[in-house]
Structure formats: C-alpha cells, structure tokens
Amino acid sequence: MSVFAQKSVLKLKTKLSFKNNTCVESLYFTPPLKIICPNQKVEKLELMLLSVSAGLMKDDEQDIVIEIGKQSKVKLCSQSYEKIHNTYDSFASKNSLICLKEGAFLQYDPLPVIAFANSSFKATTCIKLEKNSSLHYSEIFCAGRVLRNEIFAFKEFCSKLSIFRDEELILFDNLCLKPKYMALQNCCLFDGYTHYLSLILFDENLEYENLKQQCLASKLNIGISSLNGGIVVRALANTSESLIEFKESLKL
C-alpha cells in the first residue's frame, strides 16, 4: 500500500502572459503527484508530470484536471514509466479532465504504462476541444514486465478516452483488457506483440497522406485512419523503445 494518501489530486491551468508566452496561471497538487517546468524558453511550455512514489498501488486514485488556456501551447510529458503494482483484491484508478480553450495546443506525451502481475487498473479521460484548438495525444501500454515473464499476467486494464469538439463527441476509445476472459495473444488482438501505441491527432496543420507515408516507411506493425477531422495511429511492437522512437521520428 502507498505511504501517501490514497487519493492524489493535480489541477493545472495555463494562460498567455503579457509577452504572449505560455505560462502557468494556477497549479495545485497533492503527493505523490507533482509538476515541474524543465524548459520554459521554447515555443511550447514544457511541463513534466512526476510521481514521487513507486507507482500505483491498491486503492490508489488520481484525479487530474488540466485547462490549456486560450492560445496557450503546452507539451506535457512524464518523468518515468507508470507502474501499476499488484492491487490484490482491489484496483487503482486515474480520472482525467483536459480542456483546450480556443486556439490552444497540447502535446500529451507520457512514458509507457506497465501493468504488473495481478494488477487491476481503471482509467477515464475526457478531453474537450474548443474552436481551432489542436491535440497530439499518445499512450503506450506494456503487457507486463516482459523480462520476468509477466506477459498479460495482470487481472484487468481498462482505459476509456472521450474527446469532444464544441461539446460534440468526436472520438470514443475503449481499451478493456481482461486476460482471464480474453485470448489477448491471438492473431486478432496482440498476436505475438507485447507493446501497444495509440496516437490521436486533431490538428488542422497535419496532412493525412504525409503521415500515412511516414507510417508505411516504418518496419513496425502500424495502422492509420482518419476520423471526424482527426488522425488515429496504432502500432504494435515488442519493446517500448521502438514505439517511442517511431513516435519521436514522426514529422508532425
């Protein structure tokens, strides 16, 4: 069990300064969550999410609320992999609400999530886009500690993502994995792979055909599609590094 309070809260709000630079307007967090600004002298305000704990434990809960202010540009990454430990007879959870105001930009780029043996994790993410806002949202899932032969040894991994544009639902993604009831390694699901990338892009400056050609040039198992003005890229691999390298190689 975590030594911190079971519920952790993070609230972040950004805005444009009088010099038209993106800055933090307000910030509140409780342990083990924390935000730092490693680099503020770039086009986008770079923020890093830290968790000063070993990972998510039984009954841990995270509530995250982020508002990217009008015309703000933010890159949000994480310091380390998100580890979901053995949750025994319970589960850990994360609930996120992200709002992008008019003309805002958010690049959400966390490091991968690892589901340890006997872990149960439930996440919900709601993202609200206003007029002319842009979103680059990525997630990487690892099926366990591969070198310990913990592949698909978790109990449950559920992640629901809802994206709205001007209050209209434009994307709903429901990743629900239950190894006890699902043959996750069959050819219709993960096949022989252990790592999964989901990259979702809502950005009027991106061209679908250009991104498609970049995906075709990769040696990874990749799929790409367009949906309601956005682009969805999925990729499978056997290492986190290969998915991270592919994502960082894309010219977006």
Short description:
The protein has 252 residues and is mostly beta strands.
Task: For the record, give the distance between the C-alpha atoms at the N and C termini, rounded to a whole number.
Answer: 41 Å
Q: Percent range for helical residues?
A: under 10%
User: Using only CA atoms, what is the Rg?
Assistant: 18 Å
Q: What is the overall pLDDT average?
A: 93
What string gives the helices and strands in order? EEEEEEEEEEEEEEEHEEH
Helical stretch tally: 2
Are there runs of 5+ residues with pLDDT below 50, and where? none
| Percent of residues in β-strands | over 45%
Walk me through what this model shows.
- By secondary structure, this protein is mainly β.
- The N and C termini lie far apart (41 Å).
- The relative contact order is 0.12.
- 8% of the residues lie in helices and 51% in strands.
- It has helices spanning 208-216, 240-249; strands at residues 7-16, 22-29, 33-39, 45-51, 61-68, 73-78, 82-84, 92-100, 105-109, 113-115, 120-129, 134-142, 156-165, 168-177, 195-202, 221-227, 230-237.
- The radius of gyration is 18 Å and the shape is globular.
- A hairpin with a 2-residue loop joins strand 16 (221-227) and strand 17.
- Strands 3, 4, 6, 7, 9, 10, 12, 15, 16 and 17 form a ten-stranded mixed β-sheet that branches. Strands 2-1-5-8-11-13-14 form a seven-stranded mixed β-sheet, with no helix packed on it.
